[in-house]
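Milestone M4 deliverable, item 7.
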Amino acid sequence: CKMTTDDRKCDVLMVGCGCPLRSMGWYHAEQLLDNRCPSAQLRYVVEPWYMQKAAMNTPGWSEFEAWKERVSKDYGVQFYARVDQVPSIKEDGSELRMGILSARTADNPSLFAQMVSKCHTIYLEKPGAPSVEELVQMRDMAEAANVSVYMGFNKNVAKYSTKTMEYAGDRGQITFVHNNNYQLADLPECFERNAEGMLKNMAIHELALLVTFFGVSVSTIDEVQSDAAKSSCQTLKGPASGKDFTDFDKIYFTITTQNGVKISVFADRCAGDDSVGIIYDENNNVVKQFCMPDEDDVQQSIPALAKKYPGAMPYFYVQDPDYCALKERIAQQCVSGTSPQGVATIDIAIETLKVAEYLTPILQEQLLSEVAI
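Output delivered:
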């Protein structure tokens, strides 16, 4: 983006708003409307599903319609069904525009291709695309158009992960724990909606930490070992499609790199709303742990957000400050051209997705062979 004065804001094009209270895009929009990101203002929303005729009266449609009516009336935000309907960027240099792409992963490549000509900078929600090949194509497309692309890996800037890594230094063995609060009965719908699989979806945040800060890549992994006692892989039937989906509902694994770095990840879809960085000594005793949310969050910010957005997904409240920090850093990049500290680039995302694709069959085979025995 062009160099500008610090008080300028970029206009935001949000693509993939989704259902109020449930979708990440909606929460991004709410934070922007609430002036939580000083360098950005929401101007345009593209909602590819709910603004189609086929979506009328489907679950979430009436909630989206009511939200759309309020936001367009109160804030002057313009809504569209397709990206190509959004006005082009003014060529006189008076407009700086940041795109936020928060649609279903499978729809991202086609939506991204349409956004490149409409944005200076793009905030791309994790994992970015269903496959490495598609993400590479997206990166190349953005580079050719001189568009900067940064990823929604909010744990790269989170308090708990930063404190964990600072405390451990080169001494301790770290396990990054990531819990979601699905009920067992919700898993079939969860597996279907996140068909790319747990490592490409939920645990992609932890893999991004490993790639960004610990030098993990497909070429540097020496060994990966799952812990069968803390893991579960199953095949469930999707309620909408009737198709079978095989995925982890929980997984614990340890990676050892060729440089001797050992790092563990434990992800569980049905264990709560927190993320934890745990540091162990050489005898496997816990030395220290840092949580998200921490005590300040639990006592102050989470209750306030739950009151403001009753019924929203609990993880929105927990990760609220990190979403704000990421958006603001990327918006500042759009306004000033400065590189956003700690924020994962699309190249980091490509390597992270490669690691997820590499690990998934290895871990599934380890766990399913354990079951067979």
